[in-house]
Amino acid sequence: MILIFLILIPLLTGIFSFALKGDNAKVLAILSTVATLGGTAHVCFLNFGIRTFNMPWIPVMGTQFSLRADGMSSMLCLLTGIVTLVAILTNLNKPVEKSGAFYGFMLLSQAGLMGVFLANDALLFYVFWELALIPVYFLCSQWGGEKRIAVTFKFFIYTFVGSLMLLAGLIYLASKVPGHISYAWADIVQVHKNLSLGEQQWLFWLIFIAFAIKMPLFPFHTWQPDTYEQSPTPVTIILSALMVKMGLFAVLRWLVPVLPEGVAFWSDTVIVLAIIGVVYASCIAIVQTDMKRLVAYSSIAHMGLMIAVAFCNSEVGMHGIMVQMFNHGINITGMWVIISIVENRWGTRDMTKLGGMASLAPKMAIAFVIISLANIALPLTNGFVGEFMLFNGLFSSGGNNHIIFMVLAGLGVILGAVYTLNMVQKTAYGNETEMIIRKDISLNEYVGLAVIIGIILCFGFFPKPLLELTSGMASVLVK
Amino acid sequence: MIHYIFLIPLLPLIGFLINGIGWRTIPKNMGGIIGCGAILGSFIVSLGVFFEVNTPGFHTQIIPLFDFIKSGKLNIPFEFQIDALSSLFLLIITGVGFLIHVYSTSYMHHDEGMVKYFSFLNLFVFFMLLLVLGANYLILFIGWEGVGLCSYLLIGFWFKNRDYTNAAKKAFIMNRIGDLGFLVGMLMILYTFGTLSYQDFFKNLHDAPKLPASTYNWIAICLFIGATGKSAQIPLYTWLPDAMAGPTPVSALIHAATMVTAGIYMIARSCALYELAPLVSNIVAAIGLATAIIAATIALKQYDIKKVLAYSTVSQLGFMFLALGIGAYSTAVFHVMTHAFFKALLFLGSGSVIHAMGGEQDLRKMGGLGKKMPITKITFLIGCLAISGIPGFAGFFSKDEILSRAFASNPTSPYLFVMGIGAAMMTSFYMFRLYYLTFTGSFRGTHEQEHHLHESPFAITLPLIILAVLSIVGGYVGLPGVISEHHALESFLSTAITNRSKFHLEESTEWILMTVSTLAAVFMIVYAYTATKKPNFAPTTGLAKMMENKWYVDEIYNAIIVKPLQSISGLLDTWADKKGIDGIVNGVGKTVKWGGDRMRVLQTGQVGFYIFIMVIGMIALFSISFLLVK
User: Fold this and answer.
1) How far off is chain A from B162, nearest CA to CA, in Å?
2) How many domains does chain B have?
3) Smallest Cα–Cα separation from A144: which of A353, A292, A20?
4) Is B221 part of the contact surface with chain A (CB cutoff 8 Å)?
5) Which of A20, A63, B271, B552 has a CA positioned 20 to 30 A from the CA of residue A151?
6) DSSP 8-state secondary structure symbol assigned to residue B51
7) Do A250 and A289 belong to one domain?
8) From its phi and psi, is residue A62 left (phi > 0), alpha (psi between -120 and 50) or beta?
9) Taking phi first (over 0 means left), then psi (-120 to 50 degrees means alpha), and beta for anything else, what does residue B344 get?
10) Are B177 and B229 in contact (CB under 8 A)?
């Protein structure tokens, strides 16, 4: 029963929020996200077990309103709860026009995300997938930067094309369920027994393209740096910490077990693309001067490693992806929070014009350095455990190619240190530059960053809770 | 005492947390006391552990703490291992570390970031202790990268200076290159043997059916790549001289006594693996020797007092790798120990000099400092005698052991020995050149500087005196075979590491080797005296200029790696990404729009036109079906 509340709380408060103005909207948004976070924490850590919720929906079409929370979905719901709260909390001291609508859209998007992670029915999954995306289009186009209209339009077209192909693929799968049309996950994962290899091969791309655009996989990534750059920061956080995970989660839930032969057939292709993406995006990140674009490319590189491992058929690797989805979400949220504070205080994100944070705003600088270290997966930060497991997955999946993949992906580790430390050096160190608001982090930002850093260090030192939450989830994904 | 082992890393961690959280409110003296106290506590526990390990009948102990990574069949616990090797390193790290902390209380007292400095220093000791205490490669790796982080933070401690932060970044990135090798090596071990724990791994190495030699070689070379980064060997050594940008006590602790010896610790720890990879052992010896020689040639021509010591460290680390390569693992550890004493002493002594000179590091502006700073002068001299290998001083015993064992490893063609002697001769020369230029002759700096010259306070001279004593007596734990049958250090370490052979030499041969190396050192000291009597600082030419400019290695790396990476990245950004891939994406969009525009022309709204099109369509359909039927 608690599962439906995870969706209903943000959905209803989100709708209600449109009627509110100013601070009322902020208060409602905070209350709502705190309540949702409490619910997700309950699902994850109290009497953990697989929970389900079923309700008739459209029986004629063979679909029902069916939710299911296992380790992986619970963990991602928890991530959604934390990240949305931090995104809204750290934005409180920044001016937002029409705040009722702004926070309303944020909450609606959160409802959609929860639904995506919990859906146990393909059609329901698709509905939530769109529900999560549509508010983001509005948020980008209404509250974004100068080039927001063109960028949002491209983002919309790009992702919508993918979504339509996904819908077609899911309908085809449902129609192939023997006896009757069914969208239930349990039926969909059995369909591949009735599909020929040829069918699986083209169905793979029909479904995968939507996910590939979302994650994004090289070369479907070019919407991302522009969109991250133009979106208001809370939206960038939702996009990069959660929407991106939506794509990867979907691969693990709606692709790898659904089309096993198709996945096996195309896995080398995808791995090669993903590894190219790691090196390519890392190189491009080196020459960026806008902090947001740098982190955008860094994210493409990090996701590339996870995508590659998703196709490596390794149990440790799959487990690593699940852990790393959580950690990457936390770390990149921290990055964006810092960047938005920098933009607020200095009035620019251009690294050539920044410097001296360590002496002007030492608390901010300390937080920034810790988050940067997590971004390069230093041991005893949360990023390390996941990355070690990912490399283990990439390496142990056999074949001589994998040593080459491993070394190329490892280049990402070195280049990651290059661009991240460059960014730290240019912004935090060096001589002091002019701030338009001379202020270190404010209370709401302090709390938000403390949450992020607390998670970084706790799960870096003691990753057991995170590993146990998702243990056993990986073995079913491996042949 | 072993039950309290967790205290050893925990105390510095607590020190770090207290000073780190309260870095703006804690008074400087208090911060110093917390920082030093934490390390002193660790040192006392380490001493207790050492005595317990040193009792007869002690067996290696594993102390499990908690599960770290557990996933399916993969299980890597967070656990410590106590044996002779780790207990010895514990003593070196906490002992020398404590002295350097005490020294820092005075050296950093004028700095506003002193409490922050102590928190970083404590964090460093925490990671270093983790590195040597870990019972598996992953815990070692945590410490390994952690000390790299602290090195980064402390090199760039004065973060407003762009050069310093560049040096910090360079150190971190070059270490990361090595770390990738280490990571791949670890994954190979995990893949081949299914474990990262030392005990299981070495047991498997011993018991498992013989694997192809290439397996062992690949693992060994990957781990060694990691060691070249951390321990500053060719080709990844260029970060260490730049790392001198940090405060001098940091150079003493991190870039001389402890962190840079992590690579030696790791290979000595993995000696069972290197015994199965003779090819890689030869590479280790060759790289070590080459580094020892090349770094020594550069040190001959440096004028920055810390740069000389930095290249000297690189060179001495090369000696240690030479020892590892010939299979004399305990000798390498012996040299790590004596080197920790005399190199820490030399760095701290140079810090005392820099302190007195008001921040000046250029040898050309010093001279005659001995009169004003007698304690610094005498202790520095002891350090120089120790590193040069003059009999009676610590460095003599360990260095002589390396050279004689290099000879014993292949007595028929003693080229390792000969080249080693060459490097050792250069060592004596550059050290005494440094000594004479600094402490003897007449002062060459400004009048103001001369007026300011003074002996350093007690907190600085006390560590110097203690380290000077250790630089003398530290060698007597490993007497050469001709003097004593019992090698105390080697027999202590024998429970943890096994040397390749006994390295037996005839007594007469050993005497000859010892005499040769001593005479060579004395000769170079005298030669250095004559060469610096009338110092000549004219611009150099030819070979000397190459040496002074560090063989242009930094310039070469810039030209073949850094610059191309920048330009390739720039090209990828503008051409491949913006014009290429995004161009195609936009192109698809534009094509669809273009197609739509063309199709729109057909929607004229005139019924006549529609009928016309319809008729044409029908005719076409009929013709096609007619053709198909036929």
Assistant:
1) 6
2) 1
3) A292
4) no
5) A20
6) H
7) no
8) left
9) alpha
10) yes
| Complex ipTM | 0.93
Q: Measured between beta carbons, which residues in chain A are less than 8 angstroms from residue B169?
A: 421-422, 425
Tell me which residue of B386, B241, B379, B398 sits closest to B332, measured CA to CA.
Answer: B398
The alpha carbon of residue B528 is apart from the nearest alpha carbon of chain A, in Å, by: 41
Q: Tokens 């004219």 sit at which residue? A: B538
Residue type, B109: H
A153 → chain B, closest CA residue: B589
- Alpha-carbon distance values, B428 to A104, B10, B453 (Å): 75, 41, 27
Q: Could you tell me if A425 lies within 8 Å of chain B, comparing CB atoms?
A: yes
- Closest chain B C-alpha to A464 CA, distance in angstroms: 7
* Closest by Cβ to A413, choosing from B160, B162, B176: B176
pLDDT-based confidence at A398, cuts 50/70/90?
Answer: low
pLDDT in tens, B557-569: 888 888 888 889 8
Mark whether A41 and A156 lie in a shared domain. yes
For chain B, what's the residue count? 630
B449 in a structural domain: no
Range of the domain at B622: 559-629
What is d(CA B36, CA B452) in angstroms, rounded to the nearest whole number? 29
Dist. CA B193–CA B183, nearest whole Å: 15
- Using the CB atoms, write b or e for A194-206: b if 16+ within 10 Å: ebeeebbeebbeb
Same domain, A315 and A462: yes
* Cα–Cα distance, B194 to B385 (Å, whole number): 48
Shared-domain flag, residues A356 and A469? yes
Q: Does B563 touch chain A (CB under 8 A)?
A: no
In a domain, B283, yes or no: no
Of A231, A258, A285, the one marking the end of a domain is A258
| Domain range enclosing A444 | 266-479
Q: Which residue has the tokens 């292709």?
A: A269
Q: ω before A95 within 30° of 0 (cis)?
A: no
Among residues A193, A228, A258, the one where a domain terminates is A258
Nearest CA in chain A to B165: A425
CB atoms within 10 A of CB A56: 9
CB atoms B69 and A463 under 8 Å: yes
Phi, psi of A428 (to 5 degrees): -85, -35
Let me know whether A276 and A392 are in one domain. yes
Q: What is the pLDDT of residues B490-526, one digit of tens each?
A: 888 888 888 888 888 888 888 999 999 999 999 999 9
Within 10 angstroms of residue B52's Cβ, the number of other Cβ atoms is 14
Task: Give the residue carrying structure tokens 């820099």.
Answer: B354
Chain A contact for B163, CB < 8 A? Answer: no
Residues 6+ apart with CB under 8 A from A336: A87, A233, A236, A237, A240, A241, A292, A295
For A266, the token pair is: 């195309």
Position B542 scores a pLDDT of: 82
What value, to the nearest 5°, has the Cα angle with vertex A293 and ends A287 and A297?
75
The string of pLDDT tens digits covering residues B309-329 is 999 999 999 999 999 999 999
Domain shared by A66 and A203, yes or no:
yes
The count of C-alpha atoms lying within 13 angstroms of the C-alpha of B417, restricted to the half-sphere facing its C-beta, is 22
What's the rounded Cα separation, in Å, for the pair B616 and A436?
70
CA–CA gap between residue B16 and residue B23 (Å, rounded): 10
- Do A363 and A235 have their domain in common? no
What local confidence, expressed as pLDDT, does residue B45 receive? 94
| Co-location of A226 and A281 in the same domain | no
Which residues are B62's β-sheet partners? B81
Cα A30 from Cα A88, distance rounded (Å): 7
Radius of gyration in angstroms for the set of CA atoms belonging to chain A, rounded to a whole number: 21
Residue B442 lies in a domain: no
Return the C-alpha torsion angle B224, B226, B230, B232, nearest 10: 50
- Encoded amino acid at A135, one letter: P
- Total domains in the fold of chain A: 2
Count the alpha carbons within 13 Å of B51 in the hemisphere toward its beta carbon.
6
Collapse the DSSP code of A67 into the 3-class scheme (helix H, G, I; strand E, B; otherwise coil) and give the result: strand
